[in-house]
Amino acid sequence: MAQAAWRIEEKRKGEIVVHLENNADINxxxxxxxxxxxxxxxxxxxxxxxxxxxxxYIDDYGSLAFMELQTSxxxxxxxxxxxxxxxxxxxxxxxxxxxxxMECTIFQRDNPPNIFVRFGDATLREMYNIRYMISFLGxxxxxxxxxxxxxxxxxxxxxITHMKKTGVDAVPIVGMISFLLGLIMAFMSSIQxxxxxxxxxxxxxxxxxxxxxxxxxxxxxxxAGRTGSAYAAEIGTMQISEEIDALFTMGFNPTLFLAxxxxxxxxxxxxxxxxxxxxxxxxxxxxxGVLMLxxxxxxxxxxxLDALTLFEVLWGMMKSVIFALLIAWTGCLRGFQVxxxxxxxxxxxxxxxxxxxxxxILFDSIFAVIRSYW
Length: 374
Prior knowledge:
mainly alpha
């Protein structure tokens, strides 16, 4: 390790000139830290001048040593200056200072807004969402009216494609869930009813519960998870890729072009899925009745037909139509609301499922109240 050669000249009281006699590099910098910098700190100069007339080269280590000298003086209110330095030396020192300042800059975190600002922002955001929901609902209604008076404007091929995705592709999962649900209901109810010798009424319980309540609800929840999220993701992807803006620019009505076929497809196939769900649930109850309750298939089916009425079937299908409208409308709405990138598409799909399930339960509660006072 080479020793740094230097000498100190004191001109006036508090003014010091340091003459560096050789280069400041990785070899000589340790001696600067060991001897020169402590000496300067003891003198507490008001002005420190660093004379580099004999220095031909400095590296980052030398620049850092000069910065330490500068900091030791300026921290006590003094001044620091470099004189008689070559251009490339001055540029190397300035570059190191700039880099240090950039890396050590402390970014001030903005203070979070107070509760009133957050509450107002949330209120305005929700008001905007409600206004957009009403506007989109009106747009869908106008699209249906346009299709009603101009049937040729409905994109039949796309509607059939969505019917397949929403209905046909969902039959296996809907059938399996409904079968298991009917089996569970029959098994749990038989535990109580068999104590009174009322095994035959298991068929009535399963049929009435599934056809009027659980069948439409479970089918709607499955469709919301499959189709509602798919609608939101498909339209949301088109929104962030500016395909919807292109449709509008070409003179197409995006609601009529994208939303109406999906809503029509859901309204057609969800009631049919509900009928399939009812059938599979009754089949699940039949399995329990025959294998565990010693009922004959004929007696179970006759009891089911006696318990069911046309009103119960139509009531369940009417609810499934409303649920289909809610699912398709919510999925398309969340898709059109997408702004930003890929993350917003996932958020829209999640929001579509959650909102659809909430609306399904809410409207089913309203129907239950209406029926109780009918």
